[in-house]
Write a structure and sequence with these properties.
The structure is a single chain. The chain is an alpha/beta fold. It has 2 domains: 61 residues, no CATH class; 263 residues, TIM Barrel (Alpha-Beta Barrel). It is built from 11 helices and 12 strands. α3 crosses α4, α4 packs parallel to α5 and α5 runs parallel beside α6. The chain is globular, with a radius of gyration of 19 Å. It starts with a strand and ends with a helix.
Length: 339
């Protein structure tokens, strides 16, 4: 698969005018646009968007094509995915929602704060975290998912286990969010395809225990995109509809601080896959590295800055801890950009 990286990103009325004057092309159907493009792996390097050579036409078409509303969510985004971890050891909120009552209350509060969907996880995937069995994971999350689904909450299940995916979808979850991009469990892709469920494919190398041993890249943005392209192709081959696939570059997973920053800055390259883009930057360690804030729960302002940067680069879903603050920031971003 050929890859192009959209550059010279434009927003607001200027983007629409540039598209009309054929000085730029629409990013993911617009209204954002890009005026330049890097031809990944090609000696010609950066070219004008209206001069992309024919051999990159298919990649360009994927970048420009409108994305369907992910998981039936209203509008075209951006959407906010709120995080509720039913774990004792997640890096930011481990233990806070470890009872059924606390987790359900947090999920309902997350929706009330403006989240479009609520991501429920029962296994921590922070660096070095200990794995749990699917049975332990299901005991933690299935009652929470059932309770939230009864209240009409759009639930995403954060799991890498096929058995948990199946049980969660039967309990009322609508979306599967897999940090291994359906690579951990050989039965996972078939479960998602049979349920016709939307899925988030996240980039990671190795396991949560070993991933930082694999943080070696010559070009982190291009390599992450190419590896996600393989996972997207595998998902489609398993019967998952392309419009039901979102991709997540996996900020903080098998990437060091410099790689995380570069990957966020170049996130627009993911649009060459033709999928909805999700950004999970909330309270991540690279924010602490940039700001000097060691306490994850105190990284809210930095998380907002990183989230808005992701939106500027075409992310359509923000996975966050600080939902009310992010919803307010997204509304301002939308107003400033004519969305």
């Amino acid at each position: 698969m050929r890859l192009i990286e959209p550059l010279g990103l434009l927003h607001g009325p200027g983007a629409s005018e540039a598209i009309e004057r054929r000085l730029a092309l629409p990013l993911a159907g617009g209204p954002a646009a890009f005026s330049l493009a890097r031809l990944v792996g090609d000696a010609r390097g950066i070219v004008l968007a209206n001069a992309i050579p024919p051999e990159f036409a298919e990649a360009c078409a994927r970048v420009c094509a409108p994305r369907p509303a992910f998981a039936g969510l209203p509008g075209r985004g951006p959407w906010v995915m709120g995080i509720v971890n039913v774990t004792p050891d997640s890096f930011s909120d481990g233990g806070r929602h470890f009872t059924l009552e606390a987790a359900v209350e947090a999920g309902l509060a997350t929706r009330a704060a403006g989240a479009d969907l609520v991501d429920i996880g029962g296994e921590s995937t922070r660096p070095g975290s200990a794995p749990v069995t699917p049975e332990q994971e299901q005991a933690r999350i299935l009652p929470v998912i059932e309770a939230l689904a009864r209240e009409g909450v759009v639930v995403s299940v954060d799991t890498r286990h096929a058995a948990t995916m199946r049980a969660a979808l039967e309990a009322g979850a609508r979306v599967v969010n897999d940090v291994t991009a359906l690579a951990h469990d050989p039965l996972a892709a078939a479960v998602v395809a049979a349920a016709r469920a939307p899925v988030v494919l996240m980039h990671m190398r190795g396991t949560p225990q070993t991933m930082m041993d694999h943080a070696s890249y010559a070009d982190v943005a291009a390599e992450v995109t190419a590896e996600l392209a393989q996972r997207v192709a595998a998902a489609v081959a398993a019967g998952i509809a392309p419009g039901d696939i979102a991709v997540d570059p996996g900020i903080g997973f098998a990437k060091d601080h410099a790689q995380n920053i570069e990957l966020l800055d170049r996130m627009a390259i993911l649009h060459t896959l033709g999928c909805t883009v999700l950004a999970g930057v909330s309270r991540k360690r690279f924010i602490g590295h940039l700001t000097g804030e060691a306490v994850a729960a105190q990284r809210g302002p930095g998380s907002l800055a990183a989230a808005l940067a992701a939106l500027d680069r075409g992310a359509a879903i923000l996975r966050v801890h600080d939902v009310a603050e992010t919803v307010q920031a997204v509304r301002v971003w939308r107003g400033l950009n004519g969305r």
